[in-house]
């Protein structure tokens, strides 16, 4: 299994963009431990991973992110929305909903899927510079 490659392919298929891997080392030079995490759209996905090498830590983080995609919603923040009316782009909203359905576990409630779709849509619009309009 190539967890990093599988994750990149899965995110691309879901239209969620590219994964970014962040890794840091800690400990004495002769006994380093690496900790990595996966970011998608600037938000962590999965619990991250550790390893004796950067490669092992990134592989573990990718496996954790794949597990998060399989078992539930991504770990996205619940930052409050800026006030105002958000523009509606039907095709983008439909894709966000499709992605939220894919990311949500089989036991997810309608409210959880709806909340995930709203977060994905919000994050995508903010990344593209299409925030809320003044009411």
TrEMBL record:
Database matches in CDD domains: DSRM_RNAse_III_family
SUPFAM superfamilies, A to Z: dsRNA-binding domain-like (SSF54768)
Domain named DRBM: residues: 1-71
Pfam families per the UniProt record, alphabetical: dsrm (PF00035)
Region ranges (Disordered): 45-64
InterPro entries given in the database record: dsRBD_dom
Keywords, sorted A to Z: RNA-binding
GO MF terms, alphabetically ordered: RNA binding
The name this protein goes by in its record: DRBM domain-containing protein
Species name: Deinococcus metalli
